[in-house]
UniProtKB/TrEMBL annotation:
Keywords of the record: Membrane, Transmembrane, Transmembrane helix, Transport
Subcellular location: Membrane
Name of this protein: Uracil-xanthine permease
Entry membrane topology: Multi-pass membrane protein
Organism name: Adlercreutzia caecimuris B7
Single GO molecular function: xanthine transmembrane transporter activity
Amino acid sequence: MSDTKTVPTMGADDAPDAVYDARTLGAPKMTIFGIQHMFAMFGATILVPTLTGLSVSATLLFAGLGTLLFHFLSKGKVPAFLGSSFAFIAGYAAIAPNGEAHLLPYACLGVACAGLLYLIVSALFKVFGPQRIMRFFPPVVTGPIVICIGLILAPSAIANCETNWPVALVAIAIIVISNIWGRGMIRIIPILLGVIGSYVAAAFAGVVDFAPVADAAWIGLPVLWDNTVFALFGPNFDAGLAITAIITIMPLAFATIIEHIGDMSAISSTCNRNFIAEPGLHRTLLGDGLATIVASLFGAPANTTYGENTGVLALTRVFDPRVVRIAACFAILFSFCPKFAAVISCMPACVIGGVSLVLYGMISAVGIRNLVENHVDFMMSRNVLITALILVLSLGIASSAAGAIVFEVGGVTVALSGLAVGSVVGILLNIILPGKEEGWDGGLAAEAEADDVPLPLEAEVTNLPIAD
């Protein structure tokens, strides 16, 4: 089978072929692609420790290690990067509202326990198979969910852009011009160019404070023992606080698991590969869960598959997971350099906002493509209702004052994100409402697994066969 496949991109008739083996591009270009993926995830990844009080260096280290662990467990086939998860910020805030250093390890313990739920769900996928599980996730459900993933993130991009719109527009302009009118390498590294160009513009505009960079050391350890969960188990261990953290934070994993399935659908649709069938959701969930557990135990944020990097995939058409692993290695390397972490931490919000604005839009565009390519019939009232409720609930709740539906169960406060509520409602409506479309012949999925070839668009990942 050829390593390349012609696919449309960004509406350009002369768009380059999609690349599934980046070795054909040569080592220098592969390295540049890896650096681009690293910069794409930096903004959001370092924002989580900035908001919670966790270590930026530890975050970079375990984002890289978590990504490599994920790739090992998923047979090195899924081009996903694992960065800091925003879903658990509320959990950290509940246990350590002001980022108290002595309380954060308890929150990390709760997140580590939440990672165990990934392992349980992974086992269910392994036992029952993706066909039986994915019958609940047809295109009419996953398409709107993927659209919402991008749109829910959009306000954060706008908020960052509002700190300095001229610099943000520089990032957007560089990305658009590079991708549409660029030639050769320029055309396929627009994100990296956007980050560098707008960062330089921000420096000239005087909106970057480089004082932390000057004060930071060149080499240092990214993990401190006192910040780890292991440091809790001593004479001052508070068992009650530990139990509270576990009970408070563990339920958040149900929302992130649903989001993981949506992310895998988005990456599969972007790359035209059925990653839900091969290597299988049981492997990707296992990788995500173990990465979260390991990161949390050592005082880093929970990991999750990153939509920013899915946006890079959609923009560059370079789908080789090797490129993402290069990004992971760079993240690990730079985690030992506090000065580099300071450079990244000094990146202005307007730079992050300009780049994110494009990437988040690309995620939503993938969801629209999912609906179009799978020929979802919106003449059917059931499909209109399912899509409408997923969109309105996900976006409406996310933009509400609380940002979630909050309720108490047995004295424990539970907060369900808009995406989690919209996803659950969409799944339930698809089960309940009459007129559900039939699945496709299992031979297609089986053949795709055996030969590692892309499924036909009609039988793409979100339309897996229904098993009796």
